[in-house]
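Quick question about two entries, pasted in order.
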Amino acid sequence: MSTVEGWKKESLSRVAQINMGQSPDSKYYSEEKNGLPFLQGCAEFTGRFPKNVLYCSQTKKVALAGSILFSVRAPVGKINVADQDYIIGRGLAAISGVDVDQTYLEHYLKYEASSFRNASQGSTFEAINSSELNKWPIEYPTSKPEQAKIAEILSTVDRAIEQTEALIAKQQRIKTGLMQDLLTRGIDEHGNLRTEQTHKFKNSPLGRIPVEWEVERLDDLLIEKRYGISTSLNEEPIGIPVLRMNNLVNGEVDFTDLKYSDRKDARNLTLDDGDVLFNRTNSIDYVGRTGIYRHPDQPVSFASYLVRLVPDQEKLHHEYLNLWLNNGVNQIRVKQFATIGVQQANVNPTNLGTLSISLPKAIIEQEQIIAALSTARKSIRAIDENLQKLRSLKTALMQDLLSGKKLVTSMLEEVDRL
């Protein structure tokens, strides 16, 4: 029994129907719409509802529309909701609340996700069996209206999170398109984006560019390319931080996961404000990742697989260099310099220096391009900060409402402000 007044603790099988999946013979699978949509496991889970690829003409176990689709194999505990009837394979279970509100149960199972993962770890093949799932304890208020109100609050926050995520995705698409336009057409003296209908363009090795632009080798625009330090790193904050590949995120330096070195060479090789870091080796997906250092008040060094790029500021603004290298088309060009090994790829900085880069001759136009993209970046950052607040609120609400620590009525006012 739960220690919270008005609450109960029961096994999942006592409050819900659990239907464990069973895989049909593969000869009945098809991408053609023959039979019901088929889900073998959670590979096709998306935000809340799955997107199936296969159909199956042999019906064994069916998850009815509205039931919770629960992954019983790694990653154990991941859930979606059936938006229609699905045939489910042995990687899933379908769960439908009986004595517990269905949406409350959905949120509770999400809340328990880390506990499900922990319970399944330690075996060669991470999974949870039928007996374990049936016995899983569920806490809930005995009042159905209270269950429904808790579910409504958590669903309201979920909708706010989904809408904010969609807004960020939209703004990212707009920024990507804007970046491509600005880095190929630029801005004229009136602050307008150039077009071939209104301005003069010329042919170049990189395609059509404004006549005010030029194409240069990267080496001709740099005053330094410098490898970082090669040393073992410590978790303890002794010495100075040493930036690594994972500290380069979306063209910025991220300080959330730092390692340290107290070696003299680390102290002697620190970054200056505006230095651009380039990741020269790792998997092909990570080669070419860059980040710009903007924290002159925090001395940091950098690892040997990163290369510091210092541009000649009279020819190439460091912000423009960072933006140009992060543009999707140019990332593809950078990766063409990579030597592909068995486990990793590598871009030789000497070869990188031969990369052709298109840019305005006038630094002032480079600065105008930087300012336009900075405005877009700040807008996305502000929305992302709101998203993080919503996620923190959701975590706090789940901890309070799904454990009975706070009455649902005391939380309504906070959620109404969303």
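Here is the second entry:
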Amino acid sequence: METESLTNLRAIIIEDNPVDTEMFGSILRTAGYEVLWDRVATESEYVSSLKHSPDIVIADYSSPRFDVSRALQILKEKGSDIPFIMVTGTICETTAIDCMQKGASDYLFRDRLTRLGHSVAQALSNNGAVSGRERADEILKRSEERYKNIIDTIHEGYFEVNLAGNFTFFNDSLCRIFGYPRHELMGMNNRDYTTPKTAKKIFTIYNEMYRKGTGCEFYDYDIIKKDGSRSVLEISTSPSRDTSGAIVGFQGIARDVTKHRRVEEELQKSLSRLQKTLEDTIDALGFALQTKDPFTAGHQRRVAELSSRIAEKMNYDRNAIRGIHLAALVHDIGKIHVPTEILSKPGELTDVEFVLIKTHSQAGYDIIKSIAFPWPIATIVLQHHERLDGSGYPQGLTEDEILKEAKIMAVADVVESISSHRPYRPALGIDVALDELSSKKGILYDPEAAEACIKLFEEDSFRFTS
């Protein structure tokens, strides 16, 4: 009894997977159709099945061996008005419009296959009454309306310009950002609302995009609004093309970031003031030591000079190099606690005197540990006499326990000390200092820092200037 109430339907199903074909058939039976189908996967099978006068064609858009566009073309060549329904997992509106213009009746997403029966019924009832082009025009109209709604409601300014840089389209947000009414902004060139410097920058960016055919993400430019005030915009642009693919202009998004840039400038000024304060603190500490021992103060400046160059040679960034430089300027500040007669003693130090000298690393750490530097300056000062094999002081740290910055300073410190005059001996010279590094790198001294230091003197002709 159930079979007698079903409507006979002969279908061609373009589908590689027989399981999916059975699923289509099951859905159509539920919708009231007794389906007799030919499952085809190639063009030759499709052409052969068309001889059986099918009522409808249902096609998997992603069929690997037979393109949907070709299937539509064959129907057109035969002058056939057989309804054609596409089934797809994902498809963009541009592709859908193209297929509808070529004659497709409808398209369905796989997650909405329950609509297949309704789509078939509608396609059979229309049977050409509504052309594919009309359906395509309807989809295109809906797409354009949705596109316009999105463009008009976003807070950012959207714009399109021609190759000369004149506005050809924009949303209301761009009018608000520029402070111009629509009729005045339309057709305006970037030279009309920017400084000559900014206009040159925009020309360079657009010219580069035109040559390379690629977009440009997020760059700043200044604009002069209608009321004469200035704003900073963050822009992202890309080329716009015609149907042949030729670049005919540019399109982009503009965001007013004036307030953000002002905040960033204030933060940068505050950071600069903080860094100046930190540097003044370092200078004050250095001056305090200089009043007691001018020789040690000069040693610190030379170690700072060499440490910075070693870090630069090792490709440290500018901020890290700055921290190393400042730490070196006070690495011996703890000697302020060592009696002057020991610091300037011309003869060899006794064991007790040497023990007192060795306290300067810990003393220096204690002096500056409470200062909130953005670099580990106190720890660098504490560790600059540590050695890779654990023979250093004050903690007897080994390789992995020592800061990399402290390892760099250790190399610079020993080179300056050996090569320079000391109260208890004359200068031994740079060659002796470099021999010390060469023979003990990897044992006492960090090999990378030692190699960088040696290259500075032997290849880059480094010499102390302070």
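Reply: The mean pLDDT is 85. The two ends are 107 Å apart (CA to CA). Hope that helps.
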